[in-house]
Amino acid sequence: MIPKEYKMKSYNITVAVTGMNATDNPGPGVPVIRAIRNSSEFAGQIIGLTYDPLDPGNYMEGICDHVYLFPFPSEGAKSILSRIREIHSRTPIDVIVPSLDSELNAFIKIEPELKAIGIQMFLPGEAGLKLRSKAHFTKLAESHDISVPKGKTITDTASIYRLEKEFKFPVMVKGQFYEAYLANSPMEAETLFRRISSKWGLPVIIQEYIVGEEYDVVALGDGDGGLVGAVPMRKMQLTDKGKAWGGITINNPDMNEFVKDVMAKLKWRGPCELEIMKSTLDNKYYLIEINPRFPAWCYLSVGAGQNLPWASVKLALGEDVPKFTEYKVGTMFLRHSQDMVYQLDKYQAMTTVGEIHNIQTSKSEE
Amino acid sequence: MEMNNSNFTHLALSDNGFLFDTGTGLTYTLNKVGTSVLKGLMDGKDAEQIIDDTMDTFDVSFSIVQQDVELFITRLKELGISGQE
Fold it and tell me: What integer pLDDT is reported at residue B85 of this predicted model?
């Protein structure tokens, strides 16, 4: 029997999380928060940092204690820092978990200023982030001896018609932040180039198409080449954007070794999602993409026995976190959508004051 | 037909024929005969033993069982389930 004085360590901290959107391509904010709350060690409060008063995560019961409207990354690091200082003066923050690709540059830039006011994060450095950027990704084969598909960045449509000299169609056409489509011909690639560049800017990335099975891995690196934890899954059902709407954890020792090797070679610090293809042509594993944040399906890691979001919070606090060595194989997730019903007052507060507190749904609203 | 039971360590097969390939994440549903044959393979039995077991359990002739077991094993290989694509 454990003596009474041996209480489990409890963290009465405030964690701020971004990515509160929850469309059919949801942000990771809500699952990251669910994971943090799932830890029996967490005894603090959660702040949601939201870009849109209509983000459903703002209002969901049991998710945030406070929600603050937050400037878009395009407004720049200064604007983000100024808003965080303002929020911090009202609701002091201990840790921020940025959850979206597009905001990471700004958060990495202001990391020293945040540290100075007592706010911690556990993110890759600027150099690490640059390495995984889709524009630099193709060089990983040479620079880090990591198996990646052949790729090229292009900035104009004329280059597309020269691709046939270097690539065999079909090819993948990818935006620098989001979206990837298969192009069967240069004409199709041109249409996709225009669509993607108008949305996500230049360059657009052309990547060799690897025929095979795709797997996704949520991983957390310690920054020294060590892997704190990793959970691989196979998507079981997809949205029309190719996003996971259901998945299952798998155990593939060769792929797990590949993941360990990639994380060691990159000395990745912080969370990430690795997209991996096993080629049916040569049976080799190829790293297709690194997303430098938790994926929206990261709550599966909790179900499989590795609460990686909570581990990242503890690492941000400078705690020692033992490495996870196991996970439950065959753990599934199935996503669902549900209409939530709210009265106007909270939305009104979000749009006018830019913040809401004490979020809970009363019976009359359900 | 030679099969090594170490080729099946990545498979989880339930009594009711639900098969989960832990390496690929793919799932399959097998009928009673398929379940019985695969269980035999996973236990390290050879085709001959499996054919005998199947004939003991099901009322069917040797020639049909032999053909079905061989086809089944070939199909496992085609699907990559046996670890030998």
Answer: 46
* Minimal CA separation from B31 to chain A, in Å: 21
Name the architecture of domain A152-207. Answer: 2-Layer Sandwich (3.30)
Reported ipTM: the value is: 0.81
Q: What is the CATH number of domain A14-123+336-357?
A: 3.40.50.20
The interaxial angle of helices A29-38 and A308-316, nearest 10 deg, is: 80
Of the candidates A161, A153, A154, the one whose C-alpha atom is nearest the C-alpha of residue A187 is A161
Q: What is the pTM of this model?
A: 0.89
Pairing of strands A227-238, A212-222: antiparallel
Q: Do A251 and B22 touch (CB under 8 A)?
A: yes
* B85/B82 Cα distance (integer angstroms): 7
| Each residue's pLDDT tens digit, A197-230 | 999 899 999 999 999 999 999 999 999 999 999 9
Cα A148 from Cα A247, distance rounded (Å): 24
A51/A45 Cα distance (integer angstroms): 20
Report the alpha-carbon angle A353-A357-A363, nearest 5. Answer: 115
CA distance B32 to chain A (A): 23
Query: Which residue in chain B has the smallest CA separation from A256?
Result: B23
Domain range annotation of chain A: 14-123+336-357, 152-207, 210-334
Question: CB-CB: which of A215, A247, A329 is closest to B22?
Answer: A329
* A vs B: CB pairs below 8 A: 26
Interface residues on A facing B, Cβ-Cβ cutoff 8 A: 213, 215, 233-234, 236, 247-252, 329-330
The length of chain A, given as a count of residues: 366
Return the amino acid letter for A36: I
User: Which residue of B lies nearest to A213 if distances are taken between CA atoms?
Assistant: B24
Is residue A306 scored above 60 in pLDDT?
yes
Structure tokens at B17: 């024929």
Which CATH superfamily does the domain covering A210-334 fall into? ATP-grasp fold, B domain (3.30.470.20)
Asked whether B18 and B27 are in contact (CB, 8 A), the reply is yes
From A233, A234, A330, residue closest to B12, measured CB to CB? A330
